[in-house]
Amino acid sequence: MSKLVECVPNFSEGRCRETIDAILDEVKKVAGVKLLNVQSDSSHNRTVVTFVGEPAAVKEAAFASCAKAAELIDMEQHHGAHPRIGATDVIPFIPVRETSLDECVELANELGREIGEKLNIPVYMYEAAAKRSDRKNLPDVRKGQYEGLKIAIREPERKPDYGPAKMHPRAGATVVGARQFLIAYNINLSTSDVKIAKKIANNIREAKGGFKYCRAMGVMLEERNVAQVTINMINYEGTPLHRVFETVKNEAARYGINIIGSEIVGLVPMQALIDTADYYLRLEGFDRKQVMEENI
Amino acid sequence: MSKLVECVPNFSEGRCRETIDAILDEVKKVAGVKLLNVQSDSSHNRTVVTFVGEPAAVKEAAFASCAKAAELIDMEQHHGAHPRIGATDVIPFIPVRETSLDECVELANELGREIGEKLNIPVYMYEAAAKRSDRKNLPDVRKGQYEGLKIAIREPERKPDYGPAKMHPRAGATVVGARQFLIAYNINLSTSDVKIAKKIANNIREAKGGFKYCRAMGVMLEERNVAQVTINMINYEGTPLHRVFETVKNEAARYGINIIGSEIVGLVPMQALIDTADYYLRLEGFDRKQVMEENI
Question: Which of A34, A97, A273 has its CB closest to that of B274?
């Protein structure tokens, strides 16, 4: 099987069908890239595009769609509820198969340099590709939004990582980076006491001394009268599913409570399920190439 | 993702490279079929071919290679250590993805009828596709081998399921059928006492009152000084990996012994690993389409 990278660029246009289609066409015309999802929101005036493919093809599609957005979207005219600093607001790369996060960081840097040099758009690197610790989080990079950054970009601490230290007259600036695949994962408890779900959520979330790549909250599923720990697994290699499941099971047992079920919401990379089977079956020397479908 | 079926025909030629290549060419020229493996054994004078693809394409490749074998292999001249009744000795279909065993039984019957009618080769249906209980097992169908069956085929209880009730003058007869994917699975124990591995093997194998789709033996891994339960999982949907693992764990505990690891030898269908993760994480409503790679 070949390397596979996901890319989820966000464009500052969620209303004009022609503009959105023209941007999507740039993705579709790259051989080896598969468009998975398009979500346009007119109140946000923003479109989130998801595509996958081999690293070089994905980078090509990201660059081409960014160039088209710079041509068609005028940030001077843009209004929408969602924070943004540019026509192509943010471009994250996500490893899916046979690719490391480090390779996605490298890919992000190649793209950032290209956007800066060829399109004359200032670029900020974020998340795993951040070059400064104060640029890891997207809200920090987007501070002041398009309008504020036009002035602030002259300050040394807002100097872009690639491209000119002044906003592109129509396209603004772009944030490029790399992150792990996010798995939305919920664990349901044999109790209707949401306080217990909140306590367990605190036990496992990074902010409270729990797992580094785990964000969690306790919530009530009113329709089932069941308390739930709802989790964002932001790096399933660093903090795997089975470890979170087993820890929640142990913490729940302290209250005499069991896990009645768990759910994966949306997509999950195959590797996360292989890792789960590998752990529980105590597999020795299992290689992903042993999966029948990987040979096809 | 599309339907995927595996086919593993066995041909009665393991020495002549030209004949083997001519048969393989018939498989390779069918669009949508992927040749995975070829194993020729000269003392058996037999070649085992593994290919996968969509059902119709796989059936086409099976028929074309069987026709070519009938053209090139003369059973009157064939000698080899392995039991056989024809040029194409046996053709099993195995469900891999989005295909049931029943669909493979149907596919096997279509192919059997075609081989009988178009090639004038008598065909016996076996395993899940058997039409009589005394034809489920391959050794029973092959009784007397090519030489013996030439006479015995006239008896009513040896009448073929498709095709003429007399041997093809050069190609003999062919066995066609459907079976589940076989997973070779070993479980290693925290003991060097092989008697315990043998007792546990007896607890889980069908023949001794254990799981229906489980064949098991206790053996000694001399190089590691570890006792092992070595298992053939002949239907991982009927008897899943996790149930065998957990039962061996429980039975071992009765002797104060643990499972130190397990191994999957060779290939495993992705569904078997998804089922394992599903069981241990107690997943609710998980759909295989949620696996990222299934959307590509």
Answer: A273
